[in-house]
Amino acid sequence: MKLTLRWFGTGFDSVTLGQIRQIPGVKGVITTLYDIPAGEEWPLERIRALKEEVESSGLKILGIESVNVHDAIKAGLPDRDRYIENYIKTLERLGACDIRLVCYNFMPVFDWVRSDLAKPREDGTTVMSYDQAVIDRIDSSRIFNRMDSGSNGFILPGWEPERLADIRKLFKLYRDVDDQKLFENMVYFLKAVMPTCEKYGIKMAVHPDDPAWPVFGLPRIVTNLENLNRLFETVDSPYNGVTLCTGSLGSNPDNNIPEIIRSLKGRIYFAHVRNLKYHGPRSFDEAAHLSEDGSLDMFEIMKAFYDIGFDGPFRPDHGRAIWGEKAMPGYGLFDRALGATYLNGLWEAITKMDRLNKASATGGK
Ligand SMILES: [Mn+2]
């Protein structure tokens, strides 16, 4: 397993590559060209410069999160082919720079949603939280302001102000797009990019919808094992896979994460590992990574990754805001570094215990 940290790039992230380099066991970053709008091709020089910057710090780029998919592709608009062409050009250039993992999502209009970006906890930290009852009281045209005003001045991933300036117009694009139509648009997109992925060995790893149910009446189709399996059956290429995000899939307690990991053996190319605490139906807080702080069993989750022989990059995910750090919500240095260290510890223990068990099963021979 390759431990990584998400890094939004110089000028966009409060955390530096030098700081990331000092977290024990971190081998690389998952990064992006944060300022390039969805739908535009990534210039080769920019990718090269990013790679040089990361490598000069002693780290590697182990994947891109994300190359965002333009709304014309998701909504299946007549001009989608133009944006798919641009996406393919970006993939070709990433491949030419030896970057072979791309995380993306297929959520309409906006990315992940939370009702609170800084909910205070008893321990003096704050976390992001989701409560459907609160979301139901917010008009969809106001959600941008709510997310943006809680972002500590950072641009949140998937919440670009320019793109969301006219949110009503974006919603209109999806007026006639239901789950089935969105799925067909995703298949159309994947079938178009797969030949390039096969040529360059680039794995496409879709990020599950977060939370794992429809929000503001928009369709959501990457929410459970069943619809992931359907996606892999329909586009059955070894380059079509998933980012197993425990917090996103895990937002729905019906999703048994260790079981899903075991069942998706061979299709998981990237992992986000974090914990959350359920408060009731469609209501949860993000938590520290530690099992006892939340509702997910992180030992069982890491054991499942170990058992399927997962050797791709993984990263701690959203952390709490702790020790007074001012950062993009979920993406401070401190709690993610604690998370990384905890995941390292679990992995070492699982690995060594397995060796011991095997040695004792063979009587030490
Ligand atoms: Mn995630």
CATH architecture: Alpha-Beta Barrel
What is the mean pLDDT?
Answer: 94
* Biggest sheet strand line-up: 1-2-3-4-7-8-9-12
CATH class: Alpha Beta
Binned, the helix content reads 25-40%
Measured by DSSP, the beta-strand proportion falls in: 15-25%
Radius of gyration: 20 Å
Q: Structural class, from helix and strand content?
A: alpha/beta
Q: Could you give me the name of the CATH homologous superfamily?
A: Divalent-metal-dependent TIM barrel enzymes
Summed up:
The chain has 365 residues and is α/β, with parallel strands linked by helices. The protein has 13 helices and twelve strands. The protein has one domain (2-361): Divalent-metal-dependent TIM barrel enzymes (TIM Barrel).
Structural write-up:
- This protein has 365 residues and is of the alpha/beta class.
- The protein has a single domain (2-361), classed as TIM Barrel (Alpha-Beta Barrel).
- The protein has 13 helices and 12 strands.
- The protein has helices at residues 17-21, 44-56, 71-75, 80-96, 132-136, 143-149, 167-173, 179-200, 225-234, 246-249, 257-263, 298-307, 334-361, and strands at residues 2-6, 26-31, 60-65, 101-105, 116-120, 126-131, 203-207, 240-245, 268-273, 276-280, 283-286, 313-316.
- It has an 8-stranded parallel β-barrel. It has a 4-stranded antiparallel beta sheet with strand order 5-6-11-10.
- Strand 5 and strand 6 (126-131) form a beta hairpin.
- The chain is globular, with a radius of gyration of 20 Å.
- The model has no long low-confidence stretch (mean pLDDT 94).
